Amino acid sequence: MNFVNDIIGAELKIFEKKFAESVKSETTSLDMIMKYIIKRKGKQLRPMFVFLSAKLHGEINESTYRAAALVELLHTATLVHDDVVDDSLERRGFFSINALWNKKIAVLVGDYLLSKGLLLATSNNDFRHLHILSDAVKQMSEGELLQLQKSRKLNLNEAIYFEIIRCKTASLLSSACAIGAYSTSKDETITEKMKLFGEKVGIAFQIKDDLFDYGKADIGKPTGNDIKEKKLTLPLFIP
Amino acid sequence: MNFVNDIIGAELKIFEKKFAESVKSETTSLDMIMKYIIKRKGKQLRPMFVFLSAKLHGEINESTYRAAALVELLHTATLVHDDVVDDSLERRGFFSINALWNKKIAVLVGDYLLSKGLLLATSNNDFRHLHILSDAVKQMSEGELLQLQKSRKLNLNEAIYFEIIRCKTASLLSSACAIGAYSTSKDETITEKMKLFGEKVGIAFQIKDDLFDYGKADIGKPTGNDIKEKKLTLPLFIP
Fold first, then answer.
1. Can you tell me the distance from the alpha carbon of A67 to that of A84, in angstroms, rounded to the nearest whole number?
2. Which are the contacts of B93, defined by CB distance < 8 A and separation ≥ 6?
3. How far apart are CA B66 and CA A11, in angstroms?
4. CA within 20 to 30 Å of A163's CA: A22, A187, B64, B174, which one?
């Protein structure tokens, strides 16, 4: 993604430092785990969307950096908790927190990351950001639960499929675009538009991910999992 | 606790309805789990502290009810997640969410409760409440992690014991008193004092709980667990 680097490469570098700063802890064992989490960081897709959406509408500022950190903290907390639930031992080519430490520690680490995000936002009066993101968290859990409910009964159709991926995947990306745009524009109409934009991108992303699950291409992770887990995705609704 | 009923009985009744309202979901399966959670409600100690602290400094109002709901939502989310981590099948004489449904659903339900709390606060501009409670969540996870770290190495002393119980138990009760008082007084000095009061109560509560673990009295839950889990508590530091 070299073109992204041209536009927001400098900001992403600064962000990395700020993010590491934001998760520090005085509890030694916790600080060690935080260092590990920072080391195995992913593509940082969500912060990227925050910065790109922000730059589109004004000058990137401190509240943009906090918005990016908030999204990434929330996202990381979710991943750490996901690995506990799925008993996954690996994440991004590194051991998971539950594998290296244990389940209990992993859940607490997730809670810690979440609280750090909340404190970062409430300490700086980023209430608009917090509201947008709380709604995303609600939608994510509702979407996942809807998917579990439907996969048990196998009574899914295309409309419900789109509702599920809108909630569970698109809502966070949508929020990332919204708070990025809000951080530089402070304009509700722009924020709403960027929220919709992020939603479409998120939906497209998930469709692609679901299609790949039925293919044989090397996509950097195992395929064929959806059908094993009885997750009905788009390919099954195409006549 | 009849004297409590005399003072805030009416408020607790109203609260029950408001709380049930605040966790409703349009996702059928989720709404069913919410009804179950409401049915097996506990002593509601934290909402009680919110209402008592509030009434001490003014007229109980809508923001007091939201403060009580926020604390209870956070507390319930924590309990649901705790049962997943500890593989507990029972809670308050009812089956746990992970026992009746499964681990994955239980983690999502915890996240949902948390997001509902955040939305309730951000939708109503209860930012002071949110800030106080985020700090409690951070302290709770840090306290638990410190305890795990120390129980592995068995190098605890009385000072660290008090630091642990201040974080993991007292911080939430302390926040409950603080936001209750703030909701009616809007006075930072009073809020700070009530926070300290709640902290002392929380510490006293945990000391009693830890002492009972070494006794044979019927306290409504099993005893002798701390020593099994290598948790060093106060009785071991008394010469």
1. 26
2. B40
3. 38
4. A187
Work out the angle between the directed axes of helices B62-85 and B2-23 (0-180°, nearest 10): 80
Strand partners, B91: B94
B214-223 own/partner pairs: CB under 8 Å, 24+ apart: none
* Nearest CA among B91, B41, B36, B101 for reference residue B69: B41
Note which residues in 136-155 of chain A have CB less than 8 A from chain B. 137-138, 140-142, 144-146, 148-149
* Facing B145 at nearest CB: one of A78, A108, A123: A108
Domains with residue ranges and CATH for chain A: 2-237 (1.10.600.10)
pTM: 0.89
Q: What is the pLDDT of residues B133-183, one digit of tens each?
A: 999 999 998 998 888 888 777 778 899 999 999 999 999 999 999 999 999
DSSP sequence for A126-172:
-HHHHHHHHHHHHHHHHHHHHHHHHHHHT---HHHHHHHHIIIIIHH
Residue B223: name the closest of B206, B236, B209, B202 by CA: B209
Q: Side chain identity at B175, as an amino acid letter?
A: S
* Alpha helix stretches (DSSP H) within chain B: 2-23, 28-39, 45-55, 62-85, 97-100, 103-123, 127-153, 158-165, 171-185, 188-212, 225-228
Q: What is the DSSP letter of B192?
A: H
Residues of chain B numbered 166-225 and touching chain A (CB < 8 Å): none
Interface confidence, given as ipTM, is 0.86
DSSP symbol at B238 = -
The answer to whether the CB of B92 falls within 8 A of the CB of B40 is yes
Q: What is the pLDDT of residues B97-125, one digit of tens each?
A: 999 998 889 988 998 999 999 999 999 99
The distance of A67 to chain B (nearest Cα, Å) reads 16
Query: Tokens 């993010």 identify what position?
Result: A19
Q: Identify the CA nearest to B167 among candidates B191, B185, B149, B189.
A: B149
